[in-house]
Amino acid sequence: MAKNTTITVQQIGSPIRRDKSQRATLIGLGLNKMNKQRELVDTPEVRGMINKVPHLVRVVGE
Fold this sequence. Notes:
One of its GO terms (biological process) is translation. The protein has two helices and three strands, in the order E-H-E-H-E.
């Protein structure tokens, strides 16, 4: 991963009836409403959070 690369993540699923850890992961990514998008620095920590909730988020741009 190159220095200062970013990825855009969009929330596509609702956190209703999800585990607390999955809700907390969405909040950690800065997502809390449907279709909200955030541009995040591409780090292993962020990739791990995305991999924890792949059914709730989509990577729009890299």
